[in-house]
Amino acid sequence: MRIFLSQVIAILWKDIRYELRSKQTWLGMGMFALLVLVIFNFTFDLRVDNVSAVAPGVLWIAFIFASLLGLGRTLAAEREQSSMDRLLLCPVNRKAIYLAKLLGNLLFIGVVEIVALPVYALLFNVSLPAALLLIVLLGTLGIASIGTLFSVMAAATRARELLLPILVFPLIVPVVISVIQATQQLMVPKVNEPPWIGLLIAFDIIFLSISMLTFQYVIEE
Amino acid sequence: MALTKQATGIASSTEERTNDIDRESPVRLPMAASLILGGLSCIGMLASIWLIFFYTPIDALQGVTQRIFYFHVPTAWVGMSAFVVMTIAGIIYLIKPDERLDWIARASGEIGAVFLTFLLITGSLWGKPIWGAWWVWDPKLTAALILWFMFIGYLMLRSYMGRTPESARIGAVWSVVGVIDVPIIYFSVLWWRGQHPGPQITSNGGLPPAAVLTLMVSLATFTLLYCFLMVLVYQLQRLQTQAQRLRAIVE
Amino acid sequence: MALLGANGAGKTTILRILAGLIKPSAGTVSVLGLDIIQDVQQIRRCIGFVGHQSYLYEELTILENLLFFARMYTVPHRQERVRELVRHVGLERRMHERVGALSRGQVQRVAWARALLHAPRLLLLDEPDTGLDRDGGELIDALLTEHIAMDGSVLFTTHLLERVLQQSDRIVILGNGRVVYNRETAGLELDELQRKYREVTS
Predict the structure, then answer these.
(1) Does residue C176 come out as left (phi exceeding 0), alpha (psi in the -120 to 50 range) or beta?
(2) Which string of b and e fits A19-54 if b means at least 16 CB within 10 Å?
(3) Neighbours of C52 (CB within 10 A)
(4) What are the angstrom distances between the C-alpha of C42 and each of A45, C27, C56, C120?
(5) C-alpha span between A52 and A180 (Å, rounded)
(6) Between C22, C47, C71, which is nearest A7 by CB?
C-alpha cells in the first residue's frame, strides 16, 4: 500500500514539475476562467432578484470550460513521445497512474477555481460560504474523474480537442445538475429539495470507481 | 538462457493470410437467418401497421396523434436494448478479446444510433401537438438525448480510432461508463423536474386490452427488425474488417 | 542472444511483448519462468529495455528522470544508485541539465542508465548499435560485459551481422513473424550466416 501511494505521489510530483516548466498552462487557464465570468456579466442582465437563478450556472459554465482545458495537461507530458510507454514499462500499478493523473488535474483546475471564486463573488455581489467550497470540490472531483479517463481515450485520436468535450459533456450531466442545485440551495434555501450534496458524493464515488477500474484497459495495448 | 518464447500470432505470409480470411467467411447461416428474420419483420410490420391504424381504439385525450405511441415505445425499447447488447459485448471483449464480439458491439452501436434518432424525431412529433413544444427538458427526454449522444460519441470514437484492438477496448470502456451513467442521468433529471406522460401499462387507468395487444405486437416487430438489422450490419462489419486487411496485404 | 530479420519481420514486436507493452494475441509467453499475462508486473521488475525512443522526460533533468524511475522500480538506496550510474555513463557533470538539451548520444547513455537502474536480469535491446558515437559504443560494451558477468541475459535485435558472431552465443532469425533459424554461434562461420540471412530476407 505504501509503495502504491509513493508511486502516485512520484508521478504526481513529476507532472507538477513538468507543468511548472511550461508556464503557459496556468496563465491560460486562469485568464480563460476570468474572461468567461466577465463576459457573462455583460450577457446576463443581473438584477438582484435574478442573481440566485443565474449566478451558479455562470460560475459552473466557467469552471467546466476551464476543466476541459486543464484536463489535457497531465497527458501532455506523456504525449510528447506519443506514448505512455515510459510509464507502462515500469512495474507500477495502473490504478496508481490514474490516481496521479486525477490528482494532477484536480490541482490544476483547483488553482483556477481558487482564483475565479473571489472574482465571482465580487462581480455578482454574492458571498462565499465554506459550504460552497465543499460543493466546488465535489463537483470538480466528479468532472475530473470522468474527464481524466476520457482525456486518455481522446489522446489516442487525432481530433483530441474536439472529441473530449463531446465525450465528457453528456456524462457529467448528473454532476452538473447536482452541483448547480446545491449552489442554488446555498443562496436561496428551498424546502423539500433532494439532498444534492449527498447525491454529489454518491455520483463521485460511482464515477471514481468506474474510472479506476476501467483505466487499465484504456492505456494498455 | 533463462528465456523461453513461442512465436505469437503476428501476421504470416501473404498466402497464409488470404487463406485465413477465406476460412472465416461461411455465408450460408447468416443468409438463412437474415431471410427468415427479414421475412418475419416484414409480416410483423404489416400486421402492426394494420393494428395501429385500424384496430386500436382512438385515444380519448390525445386523439389520433396518440398512435405514434405504438412506434415510439418499441423504438425506445430497442434503442436501450441495443445499448445493453453493445455494453455486454464490450465487457466480454475486455475479458476475452475476440473481434467478433467487437463486430457485434459496433453493429449494435450503429443500429442503436439510428433507432435513437428515430426516437427523438417521433418524440418531438408527438410532443408538439400534445405539449405545445418540440422539446421539453424532462427526465425521459433528457436521458434519451444523452443516450443518443452516447451512441454518436461511440461511433465517432470508433471511427477516429479505426479498427484496432485498442479502439475496441476503448469503445467497450465507453459503453460501460455510459450504461451506468444514463440511468443516473435519468434519476437526476427526475429529481430535478418531470413532465412525461406516465407509464400506461398499469391495470388502473391503463390501456384497453386492444391497445395492449397492439403494443405487444409492435414491440415484437421492432425486436425482430433489430435482430434482422443486427445480422446484416454484423456481416457488414466483418466484411469491412476483412477488406481492410486485404488492403493492407496488397499495399 | 541475437534476434535478426528484415524490417517488419516482427523483431521489435517480440521485444515489446516480452517487455509487457503489448499483449500477445495467441499462444503463451513466459519470461524467466513467469507468465506474461499473470505475472507481468514481476516480469517488468526484472527487465531493462533500451529501444529507439529514449523513454525519458525531456523537460526534466537527468537526475530527476533517473530518480523518478528509481522510485517507480522501487530501487533501494535511490540517491546513491542513481549517482553511481550517472557517473558510470560519464554524465556526472551534466546531471542537472534537461534531457531535451542533450545530444543524441548523451540521451542514449541516460537511456542505458535508466534500463540498468534496477539491476535487471534480462536486458532487451532494440538495435543498440544505432546512433552511437565511438565512446558510446565502448561504454555499451563495458556495460554489457558487466551485466553478463553478474549473471544477466541479453536479447538484442540488430542488422549488423559482422559483430553478431562475437557478441552473442545464440542467433535467431525471424521471417514474417516466424522463427526460421535458431542455433548457437559456436562454430558458425560469418559467410554461412550471411548466406542464411540473405535467404530469409529475400
Answers:
(1) left
(2) beeeeebbeebbebbbebbeebeeebebeeeebbeb
(3) 11
(4) 62, 20, 22, 11
(5) 10
(6) C71
A214·B149 Cβ contact <8 A: no
Instruction: Tell me the C-alpha distance between A169 and A160, whole Å.
Output: 14
Contact between chains at C41 and A93 (C-beta distance less than 8 A): yes
> Which of A80, A91, A220 is the closest to C58 by Cβ?
A80
- Name the residue with cell 511483448: C17
The residue count of chain B comes to: 251
C41 by Cβ neighbours in 10 Å (0-12 / 13-18 / 19+) ranks as middle
Over residues A68-93, the pLDDT tens digits come to 777 766 565 555 445 578 888 888 88
Q: How far is CA C32 from the centre of its chain?
A: 16
Q: Which residues does chain C have within 8 Å of residue B13's beta carbon, measured at their own beta carbons?
A: 176
Distance CA C158, CA C160 (A): 6
What burial letters (b/e) apply to C177-199, b meaning 16+ CB within 10 Å? bebbbeeebeeeeeeebeebbee
Confidence of residue B5 (pLDDT cuts 50, 70, 90): very low
Strongest mean pLDDT among A130-134, A136-140, B36-40, B208-212: A136-140
What is the three-class DSSP state of B194? coil
Contact in structure between C86 and C63 (CB atoms under 8 Å) = yes
What's the pLDDT band for B201 if we cut at 50, 70, 90?
Answer: very low
Residue C53 has a pLDDT of: 82
Q: Do A90 and C69 touch (CB under 8 A)?
A: yes
Is B117 within 8 Å of B72 (Cβ atoms)?
no
- Looking at the complex, report in whole angstroms how far the Cα of residue B211 sits from the nearest Cα belonging to chain A: 35
- Count CA atoms closer than 13 A to A72's CA, side-chain side: 20
Task: Please enumerate in sequence order all residues whose Cβ is within 8 A of that of B157, keeping only pairs 6 or more positions apart, or say none.
Answer: A153, A157, A163, A167, B167, B170, B171, B174
Tell me, yes or no, if B94 comes closer than 8 A to chain C by beta carbon.
Answer: no
Q: What is the pLDDT of residues B8-38, one digit of tens each?
A: 333 334 444 444 544 445 556 777 887 888 8
C-alpha cell at A105: 488535474
